[in-house]
């Protein structure tokens, strides 16, 4: 029997796949209504612009990681920022991922209850997906990577295929006016689209495990962002084209509502949205498993443990408690905004400043040696 845990290295293409899988999670269903409220018909443009902005952030993360090719951010951040400053940056990253994890868990459990199991408490749904994600996160990276690849190629094409069926009800005139009147709103919404693209920060942990090959990491991650951008923009266009911007911004889950009115001629298939949600479940599972594994890895490295498994088991109940604390709508909204600002601050401020510090440190070292 093959040893699934033996794999410690991955290719640049696999890194891109991990980035895409982690990002295409719960927010693909939840975020559209929030963005459409802000930019209406121009939502597609704000999401497209957001893709370029956050690829820029991911590109800087790759450049930063290449300064220390054999180390993760847990090792080099304290050297660049000092002991306390490095710990703050490391825990900024960890708290961000823990908060995003609980937000996704809360959104997922509510959506599943609303659409499929209306008599099942969301806490039970959350407990189920958390148990599955925890079991996956307890494995070594080689096993997780294989599971992730398998589910990605099974679930994402099915999910996209289901959305394409809604083109049967597509009305192109709903997209007009195509270009926005207020470009400032589009730019603001593009920053808010971080919620959809978030997950690329794992580059800072996974870079040392990437084997150098013919395809550069920049191109592989760029391909991942191209794939995500195409899917996200297409979803926004379909939602507005089918529901109209006015209806979509008031819908609970517009990405699911677009499929409800689809009727396939000559078939007896009903409630197509259930099939869409079934395809969505493994994608959310992938996202949660990877995030839990990454947070546990950071804790393991930062506190010099030999294994990440004790941290997975310690974090799982804590994250479930966080999910329960987010049950109030107002609390959820506040924590969602905090997560967005933490993510933007990390990507657009901490990473560029850290890269500058790394360049300056390297230049001083060359001056001393030269």
UniProtKB/TrEMBL annotation:
CC terms in the record's Gene Ontology section: membrane
Keyword Membrane assigned: yes
PANTHER family: SPORE GERMINATION PROTEIN A2
Gene3D superfamilies (alphabetical): Amino acid/polyamine transporter I
A Pfam short name: Spore_permease
Keywords: Germination, Membrane, Transmembrane, Transmembrane helix, Transport
GO biological process, one term: spore germination
Transmembrane intervals: 12-30, 42-62, 83-116, 122-138, 150-170, 223-248, 275-299, 338-359
NCBIfam families named among the record's database cross-references: 2A0309
Family to which this protein belongs: Belongs to the amino acid-polyamine-organocation (APC) superfamily. Spore germination protein (SGP) (TC 2.A.3.9) family.
Keyword Ribonucleoprotein found: no
Protein localization: Membrane
Source organism: Thermosinus carboxydivorans Nor1
Protein name, per record: Spore germination protein
Topology within the bilayer: Multi-pass membrane protein
Coiled-coil intervals: none
